[in-house]
Every structure is written in structure tokens, then in C-alpha cells.
Design brief:
By secondary structure, the protein is α/β, with parallel strands linked by helices. The protein has helices spanning 49-61, 77-88, 106-109, 115-127, 156-159, 192-199, 201-204, 221-227, 238-242, 258-267, and strands at residues 6-9, 17-20, 31-35, 41-45, 66-67, 69-71, 95-96, 99-100, 132-133, 140-143, 146-152, 171-175, 180-183, 208-210, 231-234, 244-247, 250-253, 272-275, 280-283. It has an eight-stranded mixed sheet with strand order 1-19-2-3-4-6-8-9. A seven-stranded mixed sheet has the order 10-11-12-13-14-15-18. The longest helix is centred in the N-terminal third of the chain and has 13 residues, at 49-61. It is globular. The two termini are 26 Å apart.
Length: 284
């Protein structure tokens, strides 16, 4: 297992902690573990199946193998793969009290790239009889002395215009006692208008934001101008953070847009950014 350093950062959350869990392989992913003020545990996504599930499982073992609320932002393998892999184990022993997600139909997903992992995920959820919460835009889920507000949920009427699964994710606003954190998942710019229609621009204003699609080729600058963040969380490995491809011991510029996004944030006056290049980050 890859062992990474742990960076601790005071964001004045006022209670509870937010652990940004870095990738355990070369692959991008997204994984967050929240320890609520009363000791409840909330997970957002979790990462890839083979690369990230063992580490996530070890984190949950430290938390009595209990997850009070688990969000899956959208139906991509680097977000739901780790949970799927854990559920498929013969000795699966994690108690998941509530699982929250909203996916398009399997018929729609079958036209995209991750249909098989979606089928396996849904099959395991049913097999283990995990209680599923189907979120609705505008509702808040209370857990552990905190509120988890669903700002936007993909609507069936919009599915056909989306080019991939990234646009079909939920947008989540997590209310810690003193700070809010906005989770955009892998949101794509083609979903911006639909999100704004559901939630309104004023709801997006937030000091701390998880950057869309790992911080590259997600939403456009105008969307971040509505958020006006002070702190940016990038679910980006070091190569994606620096936009670098390593080949034959040499580095060369990659095709990703992370550096452009980082420049936008600097121009918008962001005070701090944290990526997987920093290792695991514990915010409190």
C-alpha cells in the first residue's frame, strides 16, 4: 500500500473534520471522509476499485466499520469503484446505514463508458440491502450534528444532451458548524445552466470548494466567479496538478487544463489550494 504524508490544515470548520484522501495509484479519483462533531461518519465517493479500496477500508476500520451516510456523486468508477470492490468481498463487514445517490437509468449508462461497474454497484447495493436515499434538489439530510444540502440533482429531461456521465452528478453543500464546503464532483460545463436553474447563483457562494472534474476541464471560469472561493480542493494527483506526462524518464506537458484552472483561481484571489500532490489532507 502506498503511504502518503498527512497534512493538517485549520480551516475553522468549527467542529468535525474533513479528510481529503489522496489516490493510492497513478490514477485520478475522489474520496472524502467526514468525522462529524458527534462522532458520526460520512463518506463522499471513495475512489477506484483495486487501487483505493484497501486504504479506504482501513480508514473505516479506524471508525468502527460504520458509515452513517455515504454519498456517491455520480456513476464513474473512480468515484464508486472502491465501495463496489468492498461490497463484493465475501467478508464485507462495513455497516452502511444510508447510501445517497441519483443515477440515470442503466439503459442510459450503457451508452457510456462505465456501464459494467454501474451494474455491479447496483447489484451489490441490492444484495446487501443497504438503505438508499434518493436525493431531491433543495432537500437537506441531517447527520452527526451537520446538514448536507442537495443543491442539484440530474434531471431525466436533461440526460440526452449530456455527452458523458460527468454531467449527471449531484452537487452537494456540506454545512460544518462554522464553514460550508461545496462539492462539485466531476461537474462539466454543459450542466452549468441546469444546476443554476435548480439552485440559483446565490446558493453557490462558498469559501471552500472541491474543484470540478479534478480541477481540469470541468466548469468554466464564469461558474467559479459565482462561487468566489477562498480555498480550493483539487482531487488531482501530482501529474494532473502539474499537467505533466512522464515517459521514458522524461517529462513533457500534458493535455489537461489544470494549469488554466489554477490561473483562474489566482486571478480570482484564492488564498490556498490543496491537491493530492500534498498527500492526504485533514481539514479541521
Amino acid at each position: 500500500m502506498i503511504v502518503l504524508k498527512l497534512t493538517k490544515v485549520d480551516l475553522n470548520l468549527g467542529g468535525g473534520t474533513l479528510l481529503q484522501v489522496a489516490n493510492r495509484s497513478h490514477t485520478q479519483m475522489m474520496s472524502y471522509v467526514i468525522d462529524c462533531p458527534d462522532g458520526s461518519v460520512v463518506v463522499i465517493d471513495g475512489g477506484n476499485a483495486n487501487e483505493d479500496s484497501d486504504h479506504l477500508y482501513s480508514l473505516l476500520c479506524e471508525r468502527d466499520k460504520t458509515v452513517d451516510l455515504w454519498f456517491i456523486t455520480h456513476a464513474h468508477s473512480d468515484h464508486l469503484g472502491a465501495l463496489t470492490k468492498m461490497m463484493e468481498r465475501a467478508n464485507f463487514d462495513i455497516e452502511i446505514r444510508n447510501l445517497c445517490y441519483s443515477f440515470p437509468t442503466l439503459e442510459w449508462l450503457s451508452k457510456k463508458e462505465d456501464f459494467e461497474i454501474n451494474r455491479r454497484f447496483l447489484e451489490q447495493v441490492e444484495q446487501h440491502q443497504i438503505h438508499v436515499i434518493t436525493p431531491a434538489a433543495g432537500e437537506s439530510i441531517l447527520c452527526g450534528g451537520m446538514s448536507f444540502e442537495i443543491l442539484s440533482v440530474p434531471q431525466e429531461a436533461d440526460w440526452d444532451k449530456y455527452t458523458d456521465i460527468n454531467s449527471s452528478g449531484i452537487i452537494l453543500l456540506v454545512h460544518f458548524p462554522k464553514q460550508d464546503v461545496l462539492f462539485l464532483g466531476d461537474m462539466h460545463y454543459e450542466a452549468q445552466e441546469d444546476v443554476l436553474r435548480q439552485t440559483g447563483a446565490s446558493k453557490l457562494r462558498c469559501d471552500i470548494v472541491q474543484m470540478a472534474h479534478h480541477g481540469q476541464d470541468g466548469v468554466d471560469r464564469s461558474f467559479y466567479e459565482l462561487i468566489r472561493p477562498k480555498v480550493c480542493l483539487y482531487t488531482a494527483p501530482d501529474w494532473l496538478w502539474e499537467n505533466v506526462i512522464y515517459k521514458d524518464g522524461q517529462s513533457q506537458p500534458g493535455p489537461w487544463k489544470t494549469l488554466e484552472t489554477r490561473r483562474w483561481m489566482e486571478e480570482l484571489g484564492v488564498e490556498a489550494s490543496y491537491s493530492f500532490a500534498d498527500g492526504d489532507c485533514l481539514f479541521y
